[in-house]
Amino acid sequence: MNPAAENILCISQKRAYGRSLLRLVDDEPEMRDVLSRVMETGDHYANEIRLGPTEVHAYERIVDCRVSPIATDDACVLVEITDVTRRSQISRENALLIQHGAGRQMVRQLAHEIKNPLGGIRGAAQLLERQLPTDEFNEYTDVVISETDRLATLVDTLLGPGGPPNKQPVNVHELLEYVVRLVEAEHEKPLKVRREYDPGLPMIDLDRDQMIQAFLNLVRNACAALDGQGTLTLRSRAATNYTIGDIRHRVIASIEIEDDGPGIPRDLQDSVFYPLVTSRPEGTGLGLPAAQELISRHDGLIEFDSRPGRTVFYVRIPIKQTGVNTNG
Question: Is 183 within a domain?
């Protein structure tokens, strides 16, 4: 083992001596298959492998793994691993930003095309209502008017709130607690909420109303996935020298909303931030795109990681000022 391997595997060469490599990576199945295949066939292997969370690394990591057959002393394979988690994350962030931009443009064009004739339909229904000879026919015009209003509301949701954010110093933890109270009022069963807040997180200049709406959309999604069971986890922390898109920020706030529900279906994970994409029959598919739009107005980004039993949405927001420690 060289120093880089010690860092990635979180163990010193002295402590690792005589231990199985598979034990050091929590018996990762793909690693086991790769080592067996190379030893049996003598072929070279190169691919990305995901390493699960450990006591040292709280999050899943992606490593570029290369395995080569060798014949040196007692060794038969050479394993080279490079941590490419951040590189993969940056690529994914750029894809999310592109997706968000394309989705926003598509939605705005679609919304305007829908909204223009709605006023005419509603006005015509109102004029028709006045000309009808009896009130019993008004039932039909009432349906036309109410459905037109419903579509207009949907279009307004698609377009999202207008105007730049009105930023003021905000306690993020207070916003999260406010959102939890709102969501608890919507559910008959009490929510099981675990909080892992960083008391050192400073006040951040944010638009309170926009941030509440973004957090509310994310927490509602998590609660819908839990369906009255499981645990909602709210977590906050600060990260330094963090890149969002192509801009490196000295300090950001990372707000994590986690649930232990069934996870996002694999076939939807590449498109969840597009409008009208949802796995729930009662869902509109507007909550996540709207949240992404509101966070983007704060130069931030929403990312996610999902598998059965653990789905986490990460809200990354730059901290652009030195704040006082008041979020404890």
Answer: yes
- 38-46: Cβ within 8 A, 24+ apart: 38/67, 38/68, 38/69, 38/77, 39/69, 39/76, 39/77, 42/69, 43/69, 44/68, 44/69
Each residue of 27-45: pLDDT tens digit?
677 777 888 888 888 788 8
pTM for the complete prediction? 0.60
Question: Same domain for 173 and 155?
Answer: no
Within a domain: 262: yes
Q: Which residues contact 226 (CB under 8 A, 6 or more apart)?
A: 232, 259, 260, 261
Please indicate, yes or no, whether residues 268 and 142 belong to a single structural domain of this protein. no
Residues 53 and 8 in one domain: yes
> Where does residue 151 rank: exposed (0-12), middle (13-18), buried (19+ CB within 10 A)?
middle
Q: What is the dihedral of CA 246, 107, 217, 303, to 10 degrees?
A: -20
**Final residue of a structural domain among 106, 135, 159:** 159
User: How far apart are the C-alpha atoms of 171 and 205, rounded to whole Å?
Assistant: 9
Inter-residue contact 82 to 64 (CB < 8 Å): yes
Per the structure, the complete domain to which residue 15 belongs is given by: 3-83
